Each structure stands twice: as structure tokens, then as C-alpha cells.
Amino acid sequence: MEPPVEPVPPVEPEPPVDNGVPPEQTPDEIKKQVETGIASSNLSAEEKAKVQKSLDSILTVLNDKDATKQQKEEARFVAAGIKGALELSKDPKQSKEAQARFAKMAVGLSEAQQRATDPELDSNEKAAYTEIITDLNGLLAGLSAKNVSEADRVFFATAADLILGGLLAVQQPGTAPPDPQDKKKVTDQLKKNAAALKTYQNPNASQEDRDAAKATLDEQAAATTNAQYQALVEELKRLKAPQACLDAVQNRTQQAGWPDGSLWGLTDKSCEDTVKAGAADTSSDWSALFECVLNEPFSTCAPRIPE
What we know:
Layout: H1 27-40, H2 45-62, H3 69-88, H4 96-116, H5 123-144, H6 150-167, H7 180-201, H8 207-221, H9 227-238, H10 243-256, H11 260-266, H12 272-280, H13 287-295
Helix pairs in contact: 1-2, 1-3, 2-3, 2-4, 3-4, 3-5, 4-5, 4-6, 5-6, 6-7, 6-10, 7-8, 10-11, 12-13
């Protein structure tokens, strides 16, 4: 009689190799996480719709078998940024100001993603939006890093505000300068400021380059203390400009400097009636400037600013 055959124990599967890299999320997992973030956020209904539209576009790419590896990586990159920004916008450890900034970053990433993939835009404009995405995700990482110093936090926050309020706004319909000459002038200044921020942050930059970058940043920071800017604000107040107009001029000046940022602010819809009233008041030294802003590219109007 043959001995009984011993049962062969089942082969245990090899444990997965832990190389420190988390497994890639599926499109369904990304969809669930980002939509949860949208639903629980403090975004307005319009802002939620913008982020959802961007997510839908991202998921279309991720589910497209014909999309390239690079396209899918770019889509995941934006999705991760939006998800992270939404989570931080609800993080009780963050200040109210920081939470509001993270919410804006989620919307900003969404808007930039939509424009970067817009077939109606030329390659240069798409590249500008792709750069905005990269910069915002980099700043998001810096702002959310553990043990970030207060100096770095302020720096990253300043850079984020510059990009969200400036570089993104100068591209958006409704806030972008309609005249190509104006748009180029403001964009060049905003890019100069953004480049200075990067250089000043870069530990490998030469001291000479860092000093030059700091001079650019100091000039930008002092834009709203400029005596002529202050005089313009007083004239706007004399004309009973609404607070929305005063805010638009201040925001644009902080973003793009004096005088072009201020003149860009004057073209905001909230300033329309005030600028018309100022142009009509020929007894004022500012009348010629307002008349120029009404009828000419605002980037040509600086010579009309009263001394």
C-alpha cells in the first residue's frame, strides 16, 4: 500500500514590495475624493461648478485609452493639486485667511486647467496656463509642508496671491485687458514679479541675482504707498467711487504695480461710471488721464498722470 500523499500547502503570494511609492489611484477613486472635497467646501455654487467641470475634463483624459502617458500624468497632477487645496481649505489647523487662499487655489487650478486644454487657444497661451498650474502646485506643496517657517509661509502666500490675482486674472475673460498692447504690458510685469519671487526663493541663485530680485519685490510691495497712487485714490474718493472700484484699483496695483496695475484697475466694470465722471470734470488735473483710459489703451496713459 502506497503512503498517503501529503497535501501541498498553498503558495503564499509574495508581499508587495514597499518602495515608498503609493499605488496609483484609479479614476473612480480620484472622482470620489475630489467630488467629496467639492461638496464639503465653502465654495460658491459657481466656483463648485468650475471645479467640477475641470474634474470632468480630467476624468475624460484618464479614461481615454488613446490619451498619452504625458497627458494622463498632467491630468493626475492637476487633480492632486485640486484635491489637496480643497482638503486644506477645510483644515481647522489652518487660519481663516489660509483656508480662503487654499479655496482660491482649487478654483485657480481648475480655471488654469480648463484654459491649458482649450483647443481655441494658441500654444503660447496654453503654455502660460500650464506654467500657472506648475507654480500653484509648487506653492501648495510649500504652504502645506510640515514645519514650514513663518518667513517661507509669508513668501509662498504672497506668491500664490500674485499668481491667483494677477497672472490668472490677466488671462481670464472679464478681467483680462481687452487691448493686446495692455495685456502684454501687464503680463510682462506680472511675469517679472513671479520670476523675481522664484529667484529670491532659489537657494542656488547668486547673491547678485537675489539682490536684484529683492529690489523688484520691494518696489512691488511699495506700489500702494507711491505718492501718485495715493493721489489717484483721493481723486477716486472725491468722485465718490464705489468700494468695489477702490478695491479693484488697489488689488491690481498690488499685483502689477504702479502705474500699469492701477490703470488696469480703472478699466474694471465697477469703475466705469467713476472714470466717465472724472473725464467729464475738466476742472480736475486728472480729467485727461480718465479720458485716456476711456478711449485709449491704458498702457499709453501714464504720461497723463498729474505730476
